[in-house]
Amino acid sequence: MPDESNYLKLLLAPLGLYRPLSWFKRVLRASDWEHAPASSVVALVRNIMRPLIPAFVVATSLLTASAALAAPTCQDINGETIRCGTPGAMPVGWTLSPQQRLERQISRPKYPSTNEILELIAIMGVFFTLLALMPEFDGQRTRDWGEQEGDREEPE
Q1: 146 is a domain residue
Q2: Is 111 helix (H, G, I), strand (E, B) or coil?
Q3: pTM recorded for the entire structure
Q4: What is the pLDDT of residues 48-74, one digit of tens each?
């Protein structure tokens, strides 16, 4: 029968997670707990639990939160997703047959049109132009970060 000090190792070793931290080893030593006064044990438990309280609060709030309910989506006669209740929407649960969906995919062009390619090039050009217009900043000089209390001007 394993002793109490090996329970953690028995649980975590098969998962490859057994490597207790040095401070955790000191907490788990039973011989120290037997000879310690009750007030130091309570203080030790408080010091360990205090940083864990926010983690417990966050975990509890995430685990007890209800799932967000969303409205169902519908499809139109072409198989495109559309909001239910709008003109042209099919009933909830209706889907385009696989044969019709294949026919519609074949009828669509395989490649983007010239106009779509030009729009993409223009958008990328605007993005890279904005990147080029950004001020030079490498973070090595004090003046890059702005002046704060206690900053001294560095010679240039």
Answers
A1: no
A2: coil
A3: 0.33
A4: 777 778 888 888 888 887 776 777 788
